[in-house]
Specification:
Blueprint: H1 7-15, H2 23-34, E1 40-41, E2 52-54, E3 59-64, H3 83-106, E4 110-115, H4 127-138, E5 145-148
Parallel strand pairs: 3-4, 4-5
Antiparallel strand pairs: 1-2, 2-3
Length: about 150
């Protein structure tokens, strides 16, 4: 199927997709900060550059977009055009996410992931429930991983 926009328009559209400070990430940051949690942003010294780093809790939190990280939910759909490119790209992203989580866990960090579908779409969770899940996980040092996603 041919693209409905010109290559220049498509290029501008793709370039405008943000990698940091996304709406879901800002929601999590502001909500946890209001709850009293303090964190660092974009842990560049850690594998995968986590979105939020909580040194006090030895925990990191990723806020993943369902498309870019190939989450199996209603927000993810394989692109119809250039399917080989997208399959390789998204499989690579998912594989890197798994390796990054494993590296962080092996080095003593706790790893949490909040998926975009938890905050957006027809199966989203109540915002308070998402923040409560993060709060409860941060305050429970024996729980090493967290995954929050839509219903």
């Amino acid at each position: 199927m041919a693209d409905v926009v010109t290559p220049d328009v498509r290029r501008r559209m793709m370039a405008s997709i943000r990698g940091a400070d996304t709406k879901p990430e800002l929601f999590i940051r502001h909500g946890l900060h209001r709850m009293g949690f303090r964190f660092r942003l974009g842990g560049r010294s850690l594998p995968g550059k986590p979105d939020l780093v909580f040194p006090k809790y030895k925990a990191v939190l990723f806020v993943h977009g369902c498309f870019w990280h190939r989450h199996c939910c209603h927000l993810f759909k394989w692109p119809a055009s250039r399917s080989d490119f997208w399959r390789e790209k998204l499989d690579s992203n998912a594989g890197r996410d798994a390796r990054t989580s494993q590296e962080l866990l092996q080095s003593g960090w706790r790893v949490g992931v909040v998926w975009e579908c938890a905050l957006k779409g027809r199966k989203k969770l109540p915002p308070h429930d998402v923040l409560s899940a993060c709060r409860d996980w941060l305050q429970a040092p024996s729980i090493t991983t967290l995954e929050v996603y839509g219903q």
